[in-house]
Inverse folding.
């Protein structure tokens, strides 16, 4: 890490820990330069970084101040899932969500789709089309089962930003993060095994456990700091857990970034109980802070962490390019990859390698980081405006998902049925739980350009919730029919 | 099927069954026209088809004759695998084979790679590059989890040629045939279950069984007619078999096409014992006969056949586009696909749909059918010339693989170690067996342009075999070193 990045990281951590509260003036450039023994320009560069990641604002002639985070809504409560291993259900609801094709008359707020309309993606589209013009045959061949070396080298370079020193030889390219997670799980667990997960947990992960015949043990999770280490430790003492599967950075759906100290403690726990960690970092590169947060993998000294990620959230999901750094489980993962897909399509690998090599990837990340952060604030404002009072909303520190918690008794499955007729799609909370919890929650995607059409869709969701809360069950149909 | 195609199929079957032996004059155009109540031009078109598929030759002023098939080599024996369920090993040898990257100093005769250098593939490369020039964003999105509708429609149309009436809704696009087979197996079997397979059997299938914790029961197989129905019936009576997995068309590695009557009998057997059939048809479109052979799926009337295929052998493996027609298991397969890869890359799907829609696919098949058939004869000739007397060689009726059986005591694993130093790669026979059989066999790929460089490689393989057969064990090293 460069000097200014290190300094920025230190300051950002202090802000995060509340040492410099919102609105407070930060130390002057001169003070920091003396304190840390670095040049004036290093401090200025560090502050520029912090401005970019919207943690700090410069006020002319006054210096740098901690940016006010508008606390718009109350946070969701710490989750309290069933704390025993369960078999996963909810496949029908997931299928309904993923089977829906984009169509004109439907506002899709439910899926995990990034915005792919920014001009910073253009060089990628160009790279994908490159081959045709030059009659390049490389992309018709299988490449090495581990994936195109050029791409693995670029990923290895990017991983340095998350504190990981991983060589290209230790990486396996996969068909999206789905294959990374699936191969990782099959490498370390058998059917019937118990896997501890953060809760709520990405529905794809849940369904993978279901499909592989494994049981999920959902661990209580804090919407700011992530999986409860205390509850996890108890679970590890009580059950023969084989792996811990979690998303510590820009968690889906809660949006938190687990503090570094907790990441280290989690690793120590895993070592003490000798279990593997499957770390889903698919949103890690679009954390709103810069430099991006470290992974648990970056602390791993005995190869027990399987780091899984992809370009589906940072670039585009249709490319289906992910990767896994499986540590000591490399050979098992290769076997699982071989039997799952043989290898991964060559052309998108070549195109992405090209895109990163020319610096376009980091440029695109910079843009998306700002865009998504702005969208988060705008969408949170809409939720506060249109949803019933008392609605709790997550405060994501990366990614593009809001987790919304409604009144305990509210049923978003029922909400969803009414919304369908009104051309709005959401992700219902229950698919994020193995045991059908979170029926009173929903997840909303704020990645796209937030047009007035989307605002109207959010308004419709809010109004439908209000109607369902107020109207007696029998009267709802007609109340909603009138609105229709 | 058109009238002339139906007539061609009837004649081709009669030739196949030996009713018209090699060299015999076939009925005149006029006779057939009267006999089948079709027009003269229909018969002429039928004969043109049979000429194209090299079953028949026209002799000026004499009529049509059954083409002489040069029986160059003795066929391998009917296989006699261990007839009890076994756990699969041989992963290390498979890994060695698939990890090898194409390189200048290595002649790769071992892998299942088609020839991708024919000009009939050019429109596909163009279609793949199309997007970049037009800034088309479709390929960056996920499509429906079942795959791009346009491609599924084209595949449904192609499937008619194998006698299958399957709608686009009943198809799922997969990441290569690997994912089709893997998802299919996981849809119908659990870990620990027994799956009956033809033997020898594609190593990818074997490794999939291994990876999924299933047991293989290898059934004796005839190099001309395929899996022994008698042995299979005994096995079904004796063991709790859950599925039959086989490649009845252009079998890999043996090259046979199972006769239609046997396909029907196999289906009846499966129905009687209520087991699923997983049918690998990945080489079916490059059978040397036209129209192409029917699938078992085409007889399926209760949805128990899961038909798996891909464009990896007909077009190019680096595209990673396959499909499955899972019959009654559609929803289970969708779940397995979702957890395995989420969905399949969009761009290659769009490009292939475009390629088929414009008629390029069938044109490419026509070319490859002729090319591979010519290569088969040439390669068989080289084997006969350079390999020891008594070598048995398969007579493939499609695809691009030769199966070669050497002296019972011969060890191709040992051969392989010597060949590596000489820059030649083969596929050793033992990876095609769950129980380590076929150590005296090897598989050779004859897809590429058969240059003198390849002939020299085949010669080196033959000579190394001869040395290993003749030289006393201790003397081999030096004998080979001198040759080196």
């Amino acid at each position: 890490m460069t000097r200014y990045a290190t300094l920025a990281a230190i300051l950002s951590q202090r802000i995060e820990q509340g040492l410099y509260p919102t609105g407070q003036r930060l130390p002057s450039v001169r003070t920091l330069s003396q304190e840390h023994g670095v040049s004036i320009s290093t401090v200025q560069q560090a502050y520029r970084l912090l401005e970019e990641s919207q943690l700090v604002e410069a006020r002319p002639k006054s210096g740098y101040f901690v940016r006010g985070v508008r606390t718009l809504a109350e946070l969701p409560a710490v989750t309290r899932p069933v704390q025993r291993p369960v078999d996963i259900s909810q496949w029908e609801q997931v299928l309904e969500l993923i089977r829906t094709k984009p169509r004109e008359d439907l506002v899709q707020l439910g899926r995990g789709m990034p915005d792919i309309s920014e001009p910073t993606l253009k060089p990628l589209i160009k790279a994908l089309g490159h081959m045709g013009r030059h009659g390049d045959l490389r992309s018709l061949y299988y490449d090495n089962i581990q994936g195109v070396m050029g791409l693995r080298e670029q990923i290895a370079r990017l991983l340095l930003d998350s504190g990981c020193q991983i060589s290209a030889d230790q990486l396996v390219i996969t068909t999206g993060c789905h294959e990374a997670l699936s191969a990782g799980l099959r490498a370390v667990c058998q059917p019937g095994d118990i896997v501890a997960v953060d809760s709520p947990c990405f529905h794809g992960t849940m369904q993978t456990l279901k499909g592989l015949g494994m049981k999920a043990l959902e661990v209580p999770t804090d919407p700011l700091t992530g999986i409860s280490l205390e509850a996890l430790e108890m679970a590890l003492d009580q059950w023969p857990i084989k792996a811990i599967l979690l998303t510590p950075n820009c968690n889906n759906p809660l949006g938190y970034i687990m503090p570094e100290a907790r990441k280290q403690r989690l690793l120590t726990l895993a070592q003490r109980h000798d279990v593997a960690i499957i770390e889903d970092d698919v949103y890690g590169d679009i954390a709103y802070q810069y430099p991006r947060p470290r992974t648990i993998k970056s602390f791993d000294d005995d190869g027990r962490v399987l780091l899984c990620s992809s370009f589906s959230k940072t670039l585009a999901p249709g490319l289906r390019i992910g990767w896994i750094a499986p540590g000591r489980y490399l050979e098992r993962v290769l076997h699982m990859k071989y039997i799952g897909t043989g290898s991964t399509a060559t052309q998108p690998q070549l195109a992405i390698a090209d895109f990163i090599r020319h610096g376009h990837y980091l440029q695109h990340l910079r843009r998306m980081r700002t865009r998504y952060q702005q969208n988060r604030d705008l969408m949170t404002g809409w939720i506060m405006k249109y949803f019933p009072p008392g609605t709790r909303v997550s405060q994501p520190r990366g990614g593009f998902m809001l987790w919304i918690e409604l009144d305990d008794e509210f049923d978003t499955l029922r909400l969803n049925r009414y919304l369908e007729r009104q051309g709005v799609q959401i992700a219902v909370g229950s698919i994020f739980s193995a045991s059908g919890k979170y029926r009173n929650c929903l997840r909303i995607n704020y990645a796209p350009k937030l047009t007035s059409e989307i605002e109207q869709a959010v308004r419709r969701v809010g109004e439908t919730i209000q109607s369902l809360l107020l109207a007696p069950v029998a009267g709802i149909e007609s109340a909603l029919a009138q609105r229709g």
